[in-house]
Write a structure and sequence with these properties.
With about 425 residues, the protein is of the alpha/beta class. Among the domains are: about 80 residues, Dna Ligase, domain 1, CATH 3.30.1490; about 150 residues, ATPase, nucleotide binding domain (Nucleotidyltransferase, domain 5, 2-Layer Sandwich), CATH 3.30.420.40. Helices cover about 35% and strands about 30% of the residues. The strands form 6 sheets. The protein has a 6-stranded mixed β-sheet with strand order 11-6-1-2-3-19, sandwiched between helices. A 5-stranded mixed β-sheet has the order 14-13-12-17-18, sandwiched between helices. Strands 7-10-8-9 form a 4-stranded antiparallel β-sheet. Strand 15 and strand 16 form a beta hairpin.
Length: about 425
């Protein structure tokens, strides 16, 4: 049995701590989970470090109590509209007469990372999409192959230095050390997607509380990522305004009675709604609730479609779209999204879990489970060699955090 791995997802609406281990059979066993309401977070970005630290500490305490395992070092998810990504190429010359070595891959990746990054931004990931050796593309693992010119195409993700530093400070404020920051839709893809979907071409849309995070996978690796500043909390706000109800009551209505397709709700079905002021409670048609929800869900789906088209990969996604995140649990969203996007859609809960799964087997926990799986892959890669093949050795970051850059260790082998 492996050493337990700890993960932390600091979302807009919930903060989740998770402790898991990988069994001898290669399955992920959940040992403990802790979930608290987020504080000091807006649209995926920390706005109050002290409050965020308190929420993190509460979630960690729950996870430690259930698992009996202390959390010291964690893999942490990061999102927010400050995230940007680009694809970059790097080239390395190979000495004649010998095969490609891990050092050659390192040199090619270093060249790919040498992009102009403004002083107020930091590289979070540089992940290889694939290699080309002497003009032969589609190479997944060039080590040992004979050639003279190695090219790598890498997906480079950057974030605002201040936002990154605030995440690290909030985690450290809860008494934890950050092993690695991982872009949330990439982590969610680890848990929610099958290897066949990633090979064929698939878009993952993680519709959380404050953001919708999109990751496009083709040929088994990441090709495009983006974070959009709209999520489930906007649906709740719409309901609160439209029904003139308190926010908490609107959230309860969304979860209990919400539906993305008004036409599937009978006209004569009514529900009680808590109201402001002297009204106390009043009755509204459930279809009216669905109409309010539908308008915002349509907007989110249109944003996903626009982003997929903007990426230029819209014709390369035969596996369609996989929805995860808390909003993916909304009734009727799968068929609604299928109509808008005009491609296959499925809901993506975390897959192949064992142990304490009751709480975390929902789409809302795909990111947290994926962070544990990411940590496992990184540990496996580091166990294979002192420095993972194609990876930059972990080093102090100029702004004080600790990062590792995921490289070819995370390509399917």
């Amino acid at each position: 049995m492996s050493t337990p791995i700890a993960a932390l997802d600091i979302g807009t609406t919930k903060t989740c701590a998770l402790i898991g281990e990988v069994t001898d059979a290669g399955a992920l066993r959940i040992l403990g989970a802790g979930v608290t309401s987020s504080r000091g977070v807006r649209k995926g970005v920390i706005t109050d470090v002290k409050e965020a630290s308190q929420a993190i500490a509460a979630a960690v305490e729950q996870a430690e109590r259930v698992s009996g395992v202390p959390m010291a070092e964690v893999y942490v998810g990061i999102a927010g509209a400050h995230i940007q990504s680009t694809n970059s190429r790097g080239v390395a010359a190979i000495h004649s007469g010998r095969g490609v070595t891990p050092d050659d891959i390192d040199r090619a990746m270093e060249a790919a990372e040498a992009i102009a990054v403004p002083q107020n931004r930091e590289i979070i990931h540089a992940i290889p999409r694939g290699y080309t050796l002497d003009g032969q593309d589609g190479v997944k693992d060039p080590v040992g192959m004979i050639g003279f010119r190695l090219e790598v195409e890498a997906h480079v993700v950057t974030g605002a230095a201040a936002s990154i530093q605030n995440v690290i400070k909030a985690v450290e404020g809860a008494g934890l050390k950050v092993i690695d920051l991982v872009l949330e839709p990439i982590a969610a893809g680890e848990a929610a997607l099958t290897s066949a979907e990633k090979e064929m071409g698939v878009a993952l849309a993680d519709i959380g509380g404050g953001t919708t995070d999109i990751a496009i996978f083709i040929d088994g690796s990441i090709w495009h990522t983006v974070v959009l500043p709209t999520g489930g909390i906007h649906i709740t706000n719409d309901l609160a305004v439209g029904l003139r109800a308190p926010f908490n009551a609107a959230e309860e209505i969304k979860i209990q009675y919400g539906h993305a397709s008004p036409l599937q709700i009978p006209e004569d079905e009514f529900i009680d709604v808590a109201a402001f002021g002297d009204e106390g409670r009043r009755t509204v048609a459930r279809r009216e609730v669905a109409e309010i929800i539908s308008a915002r869900v349509d907007e989110i789906c249109q944003m996903i479609l626009t982003e997929i088209k903007r990426s230029g990969y819209d014709n390369l996604l035969p596996a369609g779209v996989v929805l995860c995140g808390g909003t993916a649990e909304l009734k009727g969203i799968k068929s609604f999204a299928r109509e808008v996007l005009q491609m296959p859609v499925r809901i993506g809960p975390p897959r192949d879990l064992e142990g304490f799964t009751d709480r975390v087997s929902l789409p809302a926990f795909a990111t947290t489970v994926g962070l544990v799986e990411w940590g496992w892959k990184q540990r496996e890669a580091e166990g294979a060699s002192a420095t993972p093949r194609g990876a930059t050795p972990r080093k102090p970051n100029p702004i004080g955090g600790l990062f590792s850059w995921a490289k070819s260790a995370f390509l399917p082998g």
